[in-house]
Design brief:
alpha+beta, Alpha-Beta Plaits, five-stranded mixed β-sheet, five-stranded antiparallel β-sheet, 19% helix, 44% strand
């Protein structure tokens, strides 16, 4: 369900989608999803390392973060901050950060000096399988920088 933005100011937003270390393909995917769902964009800022998009729908922005992770891999972080109260209910603004990993499922990567295949990009971590021994290793997204794609 898309929220009715009638009567809202053009600068109205509920969520910030932060795209970092992303390609034009990722940005194009985001823009197409926003347009398809008729989501209001209060601001679209180019910032160091990516873009910040100020969107009019919290739920859409959260769901889009998960879709980005499913389609492109990478790290998603979500946070909410209390913005105020409306009609006695607390109103939160959401920030969703998506950082592209630089590798995708099926890529051959180096981790800890060993060669692995990326088996899955899960919600909380990355599943790697050693190319020689078959041993599987889970790597947390905060350690994503230690994984290097082999060209």
């Amino acid at each position: 369900m898309v929220r009715n933005l009638k009567g809202k100011r053009p600068e109205y937003f509920e969520a910030i989608l932060q795209l970092r270390d992303c390609t034009e393909e990722v940005r194009g995917f985001v823009i197409s999803k926003i347009a398809k769902n008729n989501i209001g964009v209060a601001k679209d800022l180019k910032v160091k390392g990516g873009w910040d998009l100020y969107l009019s729908d919290n739920n859409f922005t959260r769901a889009l973060g998960k879709k980005l992770q499913d389609k492109f891999g990478g790290k998603v972080q979500m946070s909410a901050s209390l913005w105020g109260k409306k009609e006695g209910k607390e109103v939160y603004r959401v920030t969703v950060l998506f950082r592209l990993a630089g590798f995708i499922k099926g890529d051959i990567v180096e981790y800890g000096g060993e060669e692995y295949k990326v088996k899955m990009m899960l919600e909380k971590d990355i599943l790697l399988q050693h190319t020689k021994t078959g041993e599987k290793v889970h790597v947390k997204y905060k350690e994503m920088g230690k994984i290097k794609k082999i060209k």
